[in-house]
Amino acid sequence: MNPELIKKDFPILNQQINQKDLVYLDNGATSQKPSQVIKAITHFYETSNANVHRSIHTLATRATIGYEKAHETVANLINAKSHEVIFTRGTTDGLNKIARSLKNSTINNAPVFQDGDEIVLTEMEHHANIVPWQQVKKDLKKQNINITLKWIPLTDNYELDLSNLNQIITKKTKVLSLTHISNVLGTINPVKQIIKQAKNINPNIITIIDAAQSVPHMPVDVKDLGCEVLVFSSHKMLGPTGIGALYGKESLLKEIEPFNYGGDMIMDVSKESANWNELPFKFEAGTPSLAQAAGFKSAIDYLTTIGMQKIKEHSDELTSYMLEKLSAIKGLKIIGPNTAKNRAPVVSFTINSIHNHDINEILNSEGIAIRVGNHCAMPLMQSLSISNGTLRASAYIYNTKKDVDKLTTTLNKAIKIFSK
Ligand SMILES: Cc1ncc(COP(=O)(O)O)c(C=O)c1O
Q1: What domains can you pick out in the chain, each with its CATH number?
Q2: Going by CA atoms, what residue is nearest to atom 14 of ligand 1?
Q3: Mean pLDDT by groups of 10 residues along the chain of 420 residues
Q4: Separation between Cα atoms, residue 346 and residue 235, nearest integer Å
Q5: CA dihedral 132, 134, 140, 144 (to 10 degrees)
Q6: I want to staple 367 with a disulfide (CB 3.0 to 4.6 A). Which of 20, 85, 146, 188 is the partner?
């Protein structure tokens, strides 16, 4: 793959910011969109706009077929069945929905959560995979059901410390929910191995993977991972905002409570009660994000035409290069594993005694976009004793080594200015 050629497909990248060519290295927050995706969204409105699964005129049929094809495309990407893919608003929405549903569900005639149960998370989670579980705990407490949140800690090399996993996960652990790739550290977690170990301890554990940072960058196969649930966002993988996917294992989705109630998710409704539609409709109440689904499908078509394995190889090469160039800067500390093995091109760093915002100011003046802050991971920052957040450069398919060179040259310039 040729990132220089790929870049030409992205109109937004062909511009100057502060009279300098834009270097976009904030892909961990969101990715840019190629013309193909922008056109797919416009094309939907120009040719196929109608509601789905309702009317049976030509436009409605076209819209329904397009929407169902989007399900199929997402399913093929992650090796799921089409009806195991639920469209959500994104990763945060998916995690909130599954947390709320599990709180209200019974499996094999027993409530999922009972007094004394546990939910296991890791210290490198995004707030999206922390706060919904804190809410589950609070809500259950009101029903006199006390559950505990437990945390897998980190090693000194910013990886998960799995040495005590057998104590952290117990027969009382109902849910293990963890990120595939840390949006701060770039660490790729060995989720397949962790899931296997967790299921050895407790075969009934429900494993949930936050794949917001992994599905855009590498092949992900839900059957191979063995998880029950996996969630991700379209906007981080060239698609539009407002849509994402929740994969749920068929057997789990059949048992748990719907996420929302209303039109399209029912089979029959009387004045007294209703029963649920088949999968995936049971979980998609109301009019879905139709144009966004067309854009999401187009984004996946774009990525799979390149090939997810090729994208992973490009990610690995850029990760190595970013680590090499950044670690050569005096006074710069990389917050994350310092080798490219099991590492994504998301590199957080701090610079000795210079405020992150000052550095960002200089980068922005040179047209370089990166992110500054706590990256929605305050508990991680607390574990690492980082009080002012980090700078974070995150690359994607259109980034080149030249982009990394511009970043490092400008960082050196900024350090010089602020060291005077
Ligand atoms: C690891 C991780 N989880 C969850 C999210 C939340 O994703 P979204 O804002 O698309 O819902 C992000 C976004 O940065 C993320 O990086």
Answers
A1: 3-25+308-419 (3.90.1150.10), 39-303 (3.40.640.10)
A2: 29
A3: 96 97 98 98 97 92 97 98 98 98 96 98 98 98 98 97 97 98 98 98 98 98 98 98 98 97 94 95 96 98 98 98 97 95 97 92 97 94 94 98 98 91
A4: 16
A5: 180
A6: 20
